[in-house]
Amino acid sequence: MMHLKRVIISLLVVCASPTAGQNMERVRHNIATLCSPSMAGRGYSGKGDKKAAQWIAETFRAIGVKPVGKSYFQPFPIDVNTFPSKMKLVVDGKKLQPGRDFIPSPVSARGKGYLKTIFLSDLARCTDSLIDRLKQINYKKKAILFNLPDYYQLLETCPELVHQLNQAALWIGITDPLTAQIGEQALSPPFLWVTKEVIDSSAQRIRFCVKNQLKKNYITQNVIGYIKGTIAPEKFIVFAAHYDHLGTIGKGIYIPGANDNAAGVAMLIELAHYFSEHPPALSVCFMAFSAEELGLLGSTYYVQHPLFPLASIRFVWNLDLVGTGKEGATIVNGTLHPKEFQRLQRFNDSLQALPKLVPRSPAANSDHYPFSTRGVPSFFVYLMDSSYPYYHHIEDKADKLPLTGFEGLFRLLVAFTAQGVR
Ligand SMILES: [Zn+2]
Question: Is pLDDT above 80 for 9?
Answer without folding.
Answer: no
